[in-house]
TrEMBL record:
UniProt-recorded name of the protein: Sugar phosphate isomerase/epimerase
This protein's UniProt keywords: Isomerase
InterPro entries: IolE/XylAMocC-like, Xyl_isomerase-like_sf, Xyl_isomerase-like_TIM-brl
Residue ranges constituting the Xylose isomerase-like TIM barrel domain according to the UniProt record: 107-266
Source species of the chain: Mucilaginibacter frigoritolerans
PANTHER family in the cross-refs: HYDROXYPYRUVATE ISOMERASE, INOSOSE DEHYDRATASE
C-alpha cells in the first residue's frame, strides 16, 4: 500500500521527469563526430622524446586521425614514410595530412612520399605577412602549381591560414584573394577557427560563402576574457572553455564539405601538452551536434 509520503515523493519525481523528457526529445536527431584528429605539433615535446609511446597515448585518448608536420625529425619523425604509417595505424590512428617544409626536400618528392602512405593532403602551413596584395596573388599561382603536383600523385594540396591573411593589405583581405585566385579543383583550405574569430571575422560566413573550399580545420577555443595584445600565445584555451560555439559551427562546416577536424592547442594552463590533448579529446568524444 502506498502511503501519502511515498505518493507525494513519486508525484514530485514524475513532475520533474515530464519536462526533462520533453527537453531531451530533440537529441534523437543529434549526432556525434565519428572521427576526429590532432595536429602533432600540439604534443611535439612528447613526440620528440617518445614517438611510439605518444602515438599510443593519443590512440587511447580516442583520437582516430593525425596531422603531422615537418619538425626536427621531418614529417615522418625519423622513420621511413611506410614505417610511420604502420606505427600510426597500429595505434588506431589514420595519417590524414601533414604540414610540409620546403627546406626538407623538393616538393614533388615530398608529395610522392606522402602519396605512398595513403595520406590525403599536403598542407602549406605558413607564408607570412606580405607587403602587397599582388604578392598574395603570386602565392595563389604557386598554390595552383603545387596542387597540380599533388593531383599527379593522387593527393590534395591545402593551405592553413594563420592570422595575417585576415589583416587588410592594400584595401583587400588576403584570405579572400587566395580563395578567389586558387583553383577549387586543385587547392583546398584548412580553416583555423581560432584565428578567424580572434581577427574579428565570422567563420560561418566563410564556410557558407566558399562552399567545399574549407575541407580541414584546426580547433581550439578563445578565452572569454581576452588577454592583452602581444601576449605570446594570445587568448587560446582548451575546447569548451571559451566563446566559440563549436557544436553549431561544426554542423555548418559539415554541411559545407568539411571532412577533417584536428585539435591544435597552443597555450597550456597548468597542464602539459599531453594533458591538454586529453582534455580536448574528452570534449571531442562528447561533442553533440
Amino acid at each position: 500500500m502506498i502511503n501519502r509520503r511515498t505518493f507525494i515523493k513519486n508525484s514530485s519525481l514524475l513532475a520533474l521527469a515530464v519536462p526533462l523528457r520533453k527537453l531531451s526529445l530533440p537529441a534523437f536527431n543529434r549526432v556525434k563526430l565519428r572521427d576526429f584528429g590532432i595536429q602533432l605539433y600540439m604534443v611535439r615535446d612528447a613526440m620528440e622524446k617518445d614517438t611510439p609511446g605518444t602515438l599510443g597515448l593519443l590512440g587511447e585518448m580516442g583520437y582516430t586521425q593525425i596531422e603531422s608536420y615537418s619538425g626536427s625529425k621531418g614529417m615522418f619523425w625519423g622513420l621511413s614514410n611506410i614505417e610511420f604509417k604502420k606505427l600510426a595505424n597500429g595505434n588506431g590512428l589514420n595519417l590524414i595530412s601533414s604540414h610540409y617544409k620546403d627546406s626538407d626536400m623538393p616538393f614533388e618528392k615530398q608529395a610522392a612520399m606522402a602519396a605512398e602512405t595513403g595520406m590525403k593532403y599536403l598542407i602549406c602551413p605558413w607564408k607570412g605577412p606580405q607587403k602587397s596584395i599582388d604578392n598574395f596573388k603570386h602565392i595563389a599561382d604557386d598554390f595552383n602549381h603545387r596542387g597540380q603536383i599533388c593531383k599527379k600523385h593522387g593527393l590534395r594540396f591545402g593551405y592553413h591560414p594563420h592570422d595575417y591573411p585576415y589583416k587588410t593589405v592594400n584595401g583587400q583581405l588576403p584570405i579572400n584573394v587566395l580563395l578567389d585566385h586558387t583553383d577549387p579543383a586543385l587547392v583546398d583550405f584548412e580553416m583555423d577557427f581560432y584565428y578567424t574569430v580572434t581577427e574579428g571575422l565570422d567563420p560561418e560566413a566563410y564556410l557558407n560563402k566558399y562552399k567545399k573550399r574549407f575541407r580541414l580545420c584546426h580547433m581550439r577555443d578563445v578565452l572569454k576574457q581576452r588577454l592583452p595584445a602581444g601576449d605570446k600565445e594570445e587568448s587560446a584555451c582548451d575546447l569548451g572553455q571559451g566563446i566559440i560555439d563549436y557544436p553549431h559551427l561544426i554542423k555548418t562546416a559539415l554541411a559545407n564539405g568539411m571532412k577533417y577536424f584536428f585539435v591544435e592547442q597552443s597555450r597550456y594552463f597548468n597542464e602539459t601538452q599531453l594533458q591538454s590533448a586529453g582534455v580536448n579529446a574528452h570534449y571531442m568524444k562528447n561533442l553533440v551536434l
